[in-house]
Write a structure and sequence with these properties.
CATH class of the largest domain: Mainly Alpha
Distance between the termini: 25 Å
Order of helices and strands: HHHHHHHEEHHHHHHHH
Largest sheet: 2 strands, antiparallel
Radius of gyration: 27 Å
GO molecular function: serine-type endopeptidase activity
Number of helices: 15
Strand content: under 5%
Number of strands: 2
Organism: Anaeramoeba flamelloides
Keywords: Endoplasmic reticulum, Membrane, Transmembrane, Transmembrane helix
Family: Belongs to the derlin family.
Structural class: mainly alpha
Function: May be involved in the degradation of misfolded endoplasmic reticulum (ER) luminal proteins.
Length: about 350
């Protein structure tokens, strides 16, 4: 299979990776704009004088959005483009939380380090922290990939070349400051070992709805509006329904407790009433259990119907099926197993990847 040296995947573009597309496009646009218009980047990079002394806090954000050297731009954008595979495996909602955490952690860490270490004059510009955080996640989450070429008695695959380019970016960043790569590596380790419950976090439903309705169609990444945050919304619905049922159960128990207190004052006179209350509670408990089962079944069935409606007309010879198959093969999976996983999941790339990663 012929493979692009920098992409390592036959499927090109940002299909099913809108967040990666935003980061890639924003970094490229700002860097080229500074170069073409002759804007001095010194006014926007993170520096001790600008952030600490002049209180120009905006530098903490702008300094992570552009590169100042062409080789850094080429290597950095190439890595961001390749790491879009993580978004396709995680899903956009989960990947967006990861990116938000990395940027927040790196910005806060850089600010604190400049406060306590005035010797740090400048911070290397560019989304370097994000790249090194994604490197940790990429190394741990993605399966071993096929060999691309051999040389000097060594076998090189996609992961080894990614590490090679990251080492190059680290060496070039070291000329100014090693803080961005280090904060990125720490953020990636925190995420992977779950030192903080980042993986359980989700954006508010209003944000999900806005992105699904406006942002995704505008980006044109072939992401379904309905399926954009479907897993996150399904989990929220299940938790909300369980909470409602638990509240109903609590209210019934409290109501029955008050009834017991009243019946104990005259057991002989209210024995029949007590039996009726017991029967009433038992019936309500049965109804609650049945209602919970119906609600959960309804949510699961609705999710299955969404997947079925989106893929019922897709055959193994369709362009979308072949693109997803090539995507999985590019990740290093066996072609036959990849095709079987896509058939089992009705051409759902995320579910098929999860099946292959779990070894089922």
């Amino acid at each position: 299979m012929r493979t692009n040296l920098f992409v390592f995947s036959p499927s090109i573009g940002f299909r099913h990776a809108p967040v990666s597309k935003i980061i890639f496009t924003l970094t490229l646009t700002i860097t080229l704009t500074f170069g073409l218009l002759g804007i001095q980047p010194e006014s926007y990079i993170i520096s001790n004088e600008g952030v600490i002394q002049k209180k120009q806090i905006y530098r903490l954000f702008t300094g992570n959005l552009f590169f100042i050297a062409l080789i850094d731009l080429f290597v950095g954008l190439g890595l961001i483009y390749h790491f879009r595979l993580i978004e396709r495996i995680f899903g956009t909602a989960k990947f967006a939380v990861l990116v938000t955490f990395v940027y927040t952690f790196s910005i806060l860490t850089q600010f604190v380090m400049m406060l306590i270490m005035p010797s740090i004059k400048f911070i290397t510009p560019g989304p370097i922290s994000l790249i090194f955080a994604l490197l940790i996640v990429y190394t741990n989450q993605l399966p071993p990939t096929t060999t691309i070429f051999r040389g000097f008695g060594l076998r090189f695959n996609a992961k080894s070349l990614v590490w090679l380019f990251c080492v190059l970016l680290f060496v070039r960043s070291r000329k100014i400051s090693v803080l961005p790569p280090i904060t990125g590596i720490i953020a990636g380790l925190i995420y992977e070992i779950e030192l903080l419950p980042i993986k359980k976090l989700l954006f508010p439903e209003s944000v999900n709805t806005f992105c699904s309705k406006y942002v995704i169609p505008m980006l044109g990444t072939n992401q379904s509006r309905q399926s954009f945050f479907s897993s996150a919304n399904t989990n929220r619905n299940i938790n909300r329904n369980r909470q409602m049922l638990n509240n109903n159960q609590f209210n019934l128990n409290r109501q029955f407790g008050h009834t017991n207190m009243n019946t104990n004052m005259g057991q002989n006179q209210n024995q029949n009433q007590n039996q009726n209350q017991n029967q009433f509670l038992q019936n309500n408990q049965n109804n609650l259990a049945s209602t919970e089962e119906q609600l959960l079944q309804s949510i699961i069935e609705r999710s299955r119907n969404e997947i079925t409606n989106q893929t019922e007309n897709i055959s193994t010879q369709s362009e979308e099926f072949q693109n997803n198959l090539q995507e999985l093969i590019g990740m290093g999976f066996d072609p036959e197993k990849a095709e079987d996983a896509l058939k089992k999941t009705r051409n759902n790339l995320t579910l098929a990847t999860n099946i292959l990663l779990s070894g089922n």
